[in-house]
Design brief:
about 675 residues; alpha+beta; seven-stranded mixed barrel; about 10% strand
Length: about 675
């Protein structure tokens, strides 16, 4: 008797291979993906790469996301299998097998599935871990070490996560069997659902939520607002999508039934009638596919855009190869700093190119309409209204931009690179109101406005006296936290990265000597494009790599939902099609009916995912400006390209899964 249950478990898996094989393959894929991401997170080889620490921090987020999603998704997909197996378990129960015995069979099936999944998944994960390490090295533009290693911590974490997942799956299966009567188990496959009534209220709420989310996305003006409202909009879209697919699919079927020219045709009659009896599950499945598709589209398009545009973003952040900033505009200090930098270049026989030098005052402030206030109370800060203001004289603007603008004492010219400003004046609360004579379209970047997530405003005032007036005013409010005047000094070099880094090191040594000689010498910061290049590659490469990994996981999920949807509905519809064949329906009619069902409902998730992505574009573009990506045409091209490729893959998957449905109902 002890060997009977394992045999029945193996036989149950083998005879239901059509539904078990995709499930086991997905479990194997999930285990493999989790191990690979965990391996890269713990790998010493990745840690020792240039930028390896940064990419490991990013990938550590992926392990948590994959773990949570794997538990939820495997729990969800197992419900398809249990629904299909209930009739078999009911037959066992009728033939005299107790529910405890059925529970033992389920335990053995779960154990067998778990062992196959973790053994195959870990085997493939270990086999492909070196390849993933090579891909990471390529992304970081570094070289991978020779040798092969296995991360025991990753194996341990993988076993624990998926053991917990399969334990939850088993408990849920046992609960369903325990609460069901034998006759209910036998009839579970044929129980069906009553055609639900069209819930107008649910549909209206869904439309309102979706419209509100789209409105939020389309009216976002700055990155901080986008960051604070992004997840709110995402939740609203998810809830609205489930509402609309559940209520909207019912309404769609009713409308199609009322259209006699459409409904009373062989290829439409059976598909529309059968869909009407499972709209609750149908809508939830289609909504899940839509949400997963949207997540894939958004992740791939945004991370790919960041990866492709990383060079442009890097040069925006570091507009010159070497940047030296002195926190004072007193020539007593600025001139020795400039001389120290130039003397180092003489030692290397290098000439500074594209010299950029100007002085400015950066101040953080809160904006409300056209009023900017300097608030020292950090607890009251509203980060969505936070702005970084850069004050310069009009003479500096004219010199740098080769213009001849003139303004009066109470006039200013502004430049807003990250947001729109729709007012004719700018008021510094407690100080003065200034009239905006003009808004200019460009200004030479110093890189600071791209380094901050919140929007920036460049303000050009009449002269140095006005600049000093603003400087003194903010000192009174901020006290020891007040901003200092800054002297920006940057230039390019015609040399390789190693030489550039060496030049930066020597400049820092000279500046240290100046500070040691004079205790009153102000703080001086230095930056080099070459020295920070690797951090850019690791950040955006890591995000792109993580986007690919998570997208693969979500695609697995979407494909499996599609497949099980076709299989489950195929078995439910087989009897109906058998009756229709007896009254004259041919196999070609069945194929046309299947195609009609796919075109009627199954492409709705793709179309809505495309609509979600399109309306999400403004908020995504705004978020990407926080990283320094201002290339909107690039984002449009990448998003459109990703959608076309995804749509082709989506159509291919549905074509393949629809064949399984056709084989079931036609036989």
């Amino acid at each position: 008797m002890s060997s009977l249950f394992p045999k029945l478990a193996v036989q149950g898996i083998r005879k239901n291979g059509r539904i078990y094989l995709p499930y086991i393959l997905t479990c194997v894929g999930m285990v493999m993906m989790y191990y690979i991401v965990s391996y890269l997170t713990y790998s010493d080889a990745v840690y020792n790469m240039h930028g390896g620490r940064e990419i490991q921090k990013i990938l550590s987020w992926g392990t948590g996301v994959i773990a949570v999603f794997a538990v939820i998704f495997l729990f969800y997909t197992n419900s398809f299998i249990i629904r299909r197996r209930k009739k078999e378990f009911g037959l066992y129960n009728i033939l005299g097998m107790g529910k405890k015995n059925i529970a033992v069979i389920l335990i053995w099936e779960t154990l067998i599935t778990f062992v196959i999944s973790v053994v195959a998944g870990l085997g493939l994960g270990i086999a492909f871990s070196k390849l993933s390490e090579l891909v990471t090295a390529q992304i970081l533009q570094d070289s991978a070490v020779f040798g092969f290693s296995v991360e025991l911590a990753s194996i341990k974490n993988t076993l624990l996560i998926f053991a917990a997942a399969f334990a939850l799956i088993l408990l849920n299966s046992l609960r369903q069997i325990h609460l069901s009567k034998p006759i209910e188990l036998l009839r579970s496959e044929n129980a069906g659902e009553k055609p639900p009534k069209a819930n107008i209220l649910l549909a209206v709420v869904g439309v309102v939520l979706l419209a509100a989310a789209y409105y939020i996305s389309c009216t976002i003006e700055d990155p901080m607002s986008a960051l604070s409202l992004f997840f709110v909009a995402v939740i609203m879209v998810i809830v609205a999508t489930y509402m609309l697919f559940t209520a909207g699919s019912v309404a769609l079927c009713k409308l199609l039934k009322k259209n006699k020219n459409y409904y009373y045709k062989t290829r439409h009659f059976v598909s529309v009638s059968s869909m009407a009896y499972r709209m609750k599950r149908n809508g939830a499945s289609l909504a899940s596919i839509c949400i997963l598709s949207t997540m894939v589209l958004v992740m791939i398009s945004s991370t790919l855009c960041l990866y492709v545009g990383r060079e442009d973003m890097m040069h925006r952040r570091y507009p010159r190869d070497i940047i030296v900033e002195t926190y004072s505009i007193d020539e007593e200090f600025t001139q020795p700093v400039h001389d120290a930098a130039l003397s180092v270049l003489d030692d290397y026989s290098l000439e500074p190119q594209d010299m950029l030098h100007y002085q400015y005052l950066p101040i953080a402030g809160l904006i409300d309409g056209s009023v900017v206030s300097f608030d020292s109370d950090e607890a009251s800060l509203d980060f969505s209204n936070l702005r970084q203001l850069f004050f310069l004289t009009i003479d500096e603007y004219n010199r740098l931009m080769e213009k001849n603008e003139t303004i009066t004492d109470d006039e200013i010219i502004i430049y807003t690179p990250k947001s729109e400003y729709d007012y004719n004046e700018l008021t510094i609360d407690g100080l003065k109101t200034m009239t905006i004579k003009k808004q200019v379209d460009e200004f030479i970047s110093n890189g600071e406005e791209t380094a901050t997530a919140f929007a920036s405003i460049f303000v050009f005032v009449a002269d140095a006296d006005k600049l000093n007036e603003i400087y003194s005013f903010q000192q009174q409010i901020y006290g020891e936290n007040a901003s200092l005047m800054e002297d920006y000094y940057g230039f390019n070099l015609d040399c390789d990265d190693q030489t550039e880094i060496a030049v930066l090191g020597d400049i820092e040594n000279r500046l240290s000597s100046l500070r040691n000689e004079n205790e009153a010498f102000p703080e001086v910061t230095t930056e080099s494009l070459a020295d920070n290049k690797q951090s850019f590659y690791s950040l955006f490469g890591g995000l792109f790599f993580l986007g690919i990994l998570l997208s693969v996981v979500f695609i697995f999920a979407a494909v499996l939902i599609m497949y099980y949807k076709q299989i489950t509905e195929g078995y439910e519809d087989a009897g109906r099609f058998e009756i229709m064949q007896k009254v004259g329906m041919t196999k070609s009619d069945i194929r046309r009916s299947v195609n009609s069902q796919i075109l009627t409902v199954f492409f709705a998730p793709l179309l809505m995912a495309g609509m979600h992505t399109g309306f999400a574009f403004p908020i995504i573009a705004s978020l990407l400006t926080a990283f320094g990506l201002f290339d909107v045409p690039l984002l449009i091209a990448v998003t459109a390209g990703v959608f076309v490729v995804f749509a082709l893959c989506y159509a291919l998957v549905y074509k393949i899964t629809s064949r399984s449905y056709y084989r079931i109902v036609s036989n």
